[in-house]
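Contributing: when you submit paired examples, paste them exactly as shown. First protein:
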Amino acid sequence: MTPRSLYIPHGGGPMPLLGDPGHAELIAYLKEVEPTIGRPKSIVVVSAHWEAPSPTVTASSDPGLLFDYYGFPPETYEFSYPAPGSIELVERLASVADEAGFDLRLDHERGFDHGMFVPLMLMYPDATIPVVQLSLISGLDPVLHIELGRVLRPLTDDGVLVLGSGLSFHNMGEFGLGGSELVDEENEAFDAWLERTCTSHELSEADRSASLAAWIDAPGARYNHPREEHLLPLHVCYGVGGGLATRSFDGRVLGKRVAGYQWG
């Protein structure tokens, strides 16, 4: 059964699509998503690579790709992932946002960024599932992103998957090369905190929500996330799914332990 929400690591730029050895575990995981959870009716992608003053959604029926990375081989700027947009889904998003008092904006020009097309090229390579992309909200308030997830929850009753695309470790200066197995204690401590917060039966729902809201107090928080945009898609996914998550990915990306979680 397709979960309500899924938080995934999307790796470094287009490196998963290049078969980078430091992304081997992630590549294998993303390729197994469809056999594991099936095919949703449509997908709302919340990518770490788009922020806007108000939550904003791609509103084109035929979005292109936004190659928002630099310094990679020429072929990485020629990828194609012609997934259709969905005006119907945009209208449904606008409706639930309006009911909740969120000022949803429509962007008719923006294409899909690499937080969308890199993982989806591995997860659903046929590019036939309708997709819209939803921005993070400038200011990066964790409570606001949990609330945004709760706004999206009714969509999942109709077969929509909310896909949070980020990285549970995102300190660019600390990534190793070639998948180093050296243990990074601050990385491991934050990973353990995140797993307990998302999956422990010992926490009440109020405590779980409060812990995610106060993620900055977690061990190694600012070491793992000097800036939190790659973590906050998880907060949206939690708001969508509510309750306990299951850990769907436990592996290394460029030598650092990273996680994936699913709800529902």
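Second protein:
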Amino acid sequence: MSEHKIIVCLDDDPDDRDLLTSAIKDVDSSFKVINGDNGIKGMYILEQLKQIGQKPCLIILDLNMPLMDGVQTLTEIKKDPVLGEIPVVVFTTSAMEKNNSFFAEHGVTVVIKPTKYGSIVEQVRELLSYCS
């Protein structure tokens, strides 16, 4: 599988993960979505992919997750020279302004989760542009 067709999606809400995965598949079925429900699992997934030489084209990250939240996960991703090159989009329900400068500093786009599926599909079209 091409490294440009893997997206890692980290979100503790199974409904949100399912909606996002469905929207990605609806927009372009050639993408493989690997889901995790917290930052610790996400880092494990990313390390496993790195070890087999596969780099995701995008990491979609929720902020509010148990064990390791989005800010902590992003901090760990950015510490790694390989993982740090992967585009990260924060996809969240909360617009936590205190983190906006942190995300801007790391070149991370923050997207507020749309509530309607059609809007999610539109958002996914934009997110997939990071994978070109």
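If you have annotations for the second protein, write them as plain sentences, like these:
The mean pLDDT is 88.
Strands lie at 6-10, 32-36, 58-61, 88-92, 109-112.
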